[in-house]
Amino acid sequence: MPRIDLILSLIRAASQSDTNGVRAATEAMANEELQRGHDKAADRIRNALGSGASSSHLGKLSNSSDHIGKLFFEFPAKTGLAQLDLDERARSDLVAIVREQRSSEKLTAAGLTPRHKVLLSGPPGNGKTSVAEALAHDLAYPFNVVSYGALIGSLLGETNRRIESLFQHASSMPCVLFFDEFEAIGKERGDRQEAGEMKRALASLLTQIDALPSHVVVVAATNHPEMLDRAVWRRFELKLVLNPPNYSKVIGYLMQELQLRPELRLIQTLGQCFPNKSYAELKDFTLDVRRRAVLDEMNVHAALRQEITLRFPEIDWPFDDGSDQTSSTTRPAETRSAETRKAKGPQREQKVRKSGPAKKV
Ligand SMILES: Nc1ncnc2c1ncn2[C@@H]1O[C@H](COP(=O)(O)OP(=O)(O)O)[C@@H](O)[C@H]1O
Ligand SMILES: [Mg+2]
Q1: Cα–Cα dist 204/187, whole Å
Q2: Atom 13 in ligand 1: which residue has the minimum CA distance?
Q3: What is the CATH class of 63-241?
Q4: pLDDT value of residue 149
Q5: pTM of the full predicted structure?
Q6: What is the structure's pLDDT at 190?
Q7: Which of 25, 46, 249, 301 is the S-S candidate for 326 at Cβ 3.0 to 4.6 Å?
Q8: How far is CA 198 from CA 128, 152, 169, 216, in A?
């Protein structure tokens, strides 16, 4: 489901017959779906736009300053760096950027500038967008997400003008300016004319990035660092790779999100069930467990046992190792016994099913 602020932007733009606004909001919705891994939903959103309006009509750009705001969207920045699981190096570099921005006057007085150009790479779902948002949150800057749909014009030469407008507008006050899927603008095109146009657009973008005042923190993100030009890499002062969580980080994340006790042996086995999975996938898993706990009115540990039995039936889970000492001490006794009954259901069933030795995961 797209975010409510995007839906509202879409309704507003549609009611004002603002075709650029409709296109920008639609593109932002499609991008959101893509980020969640919902490729089909993203295609459906884009196709709905394609069938409802001709691209030449949508490509027209009004000369009024009204279109400028639609080149990027301001998103609420709700999560800070403290809520993200980052490796030590990445955290300290990002905290340093925040500190430098906050002390920019001190730096400027000494003839220095705070760093403000960050390039994030790594597989999807491991925190690129979250880090950009967290920088905005911790700096208390607006979090402005660039809309490529609105930025890349269908008319020759239009893109450069839009890029200029975007940077002129974004520079007017401190903000985090986020370019997601940064490779989109640098990637090779089949059509020669389009390739030339995109090359010029990239050159213009890089020139604008060079000239940005240091109060604009530009964050570019890519899942495909290999597609980026060397000229792009050079521009950025801080380059971070955000990797999927390793085994110990998986365990730490699950313990934190599900409030599990460190002595729960179950989570060591569970930790092995998510090799090379992203934080986004881990988050989905923990949300499934918590939803189950609420709907089935049981505590999180019991819901976890049910969820993993269903999801990973091939594993012989170490349920009878003390994991029954769940955090149910604050719950009424009758609820606790109901939970225990429910939780033991699949456990018994499993013991019957699995007579062989524990499988190695
Ligand atoms: N390093 C992290 N620590 C904690 N949660 C994370 C982390 N990375 C991703 N997530 C979770 O996964 C979701 C998707 O991450 P996102 O930042 O959109 O990834 P990306 O932009 O790299 O595709 C986030 O909303 C967040 O809940
Ligand atoms: Mg992202």
Answers
A1: 15
A2: 280
A3: alpha beta
A4: 80
A5: 0.72
A6: 59
A7: 301
A8: 24, 9, 22, 24
